[in-house]
Amino acid sequence: MTEVTRLGLDSFSGLDALRKHHPLLDCITALGNLEVLQSKKLALFCSVRCPGKLILATHDFCHELRNKGVTVVGGFHSPVERECLNILLRGTGRIIVCPARGLEGIRMRAELKAAIAQGRVLFLSPFKAQQHRATAQMAVYRNLFVAAVADAIFVAHARPTGKTEQFCREVLGWGKAVYTPDSDLNAHLIDLGAKPVEQSVIALK
């Protein structure tokens, strides 16, 4: 297994807004192929609860992404996000996994170990390597870190008034490009400023 590497904050563009509003960030650690950072990155998020047709649409979207050379970055924590990771691992694209904890001693399943060995997967964390216990606060901060590292953000669904909607409000305030499936179920996100994804890209029928 590759050793955990500590990275300088100046290695990343786009962290200014995160550091301005959340000065907690003082280190970044990595495990895997650092070349993954050089490609364009799309962050993936979804609320824990998600309507069925948006789940199917998001799975279809990931099937399209997985062999298109787009690096997908996320915490892959919610059920929809975890299934998207499974789909992406069956492709050839690159993936950045950001757990809500430090990377020292982290356990991972065989598919992730194989993808790291292939140079396709990078684990990235804004926490000290020895921070082993994830908390709800760390998960919120991890999501903001993912958004800061990404070039654009895709939100499959955010429950109205929920934590993911609050997250969207914040990153839209940074000027980040946020995309969401073009559905009445995401009208509140579109009203906030998220850009609807065309149905030719994601079938929502």
Short overview:
It is built from seven helices and nine strands; from the N terminus they run βαββαβαβαβαβαβαβ.
Question: What is the β-strand count?
Answer: 9
The order of strands across the largest sheet is 1-2-6-5-4-3-7-8-9
First-last Cα distance: 43 Å
CATH topology: Rossmann fold
Largest sheet: 9 strands, mixed
How many helix segments? 7
How would you spell out the order of helices and strands?
Answer: EHEEHEHEHEHEHEHE
Contiguous low-pLDDT stretches (5 residues minimum) are 199-205
Supply the CATH architecture: 3-Layer(aba) Sandwich
Morphology: globular
Please report which band the strand proportion falls in: under 5%, 5-15%, 15-25%, 25-35%, 35-45% or over 45%.
15-25%
What is Rg?
16 Å
Task: Return the CATH class.
Answer: Alpha Beta
Question: Helices and strands: which structural class?
Answer: alpha/beta
What is the percent of helical residues? 25-40%
| Domains (count) | 1
The residue-averaged pLDDT reads 86
Topology readout:
Elements: E1 5-7, H1 16-21, E2 28-32, E3 41-45, H2 52-65, E4 71-74, H3 79-89, E5 95-97, H4 110-117, E6 121-125, H5 136-149, E7 152-155, H6 163-173, E8 178-181, H7 187-192, E9 195-197
Parallel strand pairs: 3-4, 3-7, 4-5, 5-6, 7-8, 8-9
Antiparallel strand pairs: 1-2, 2-6
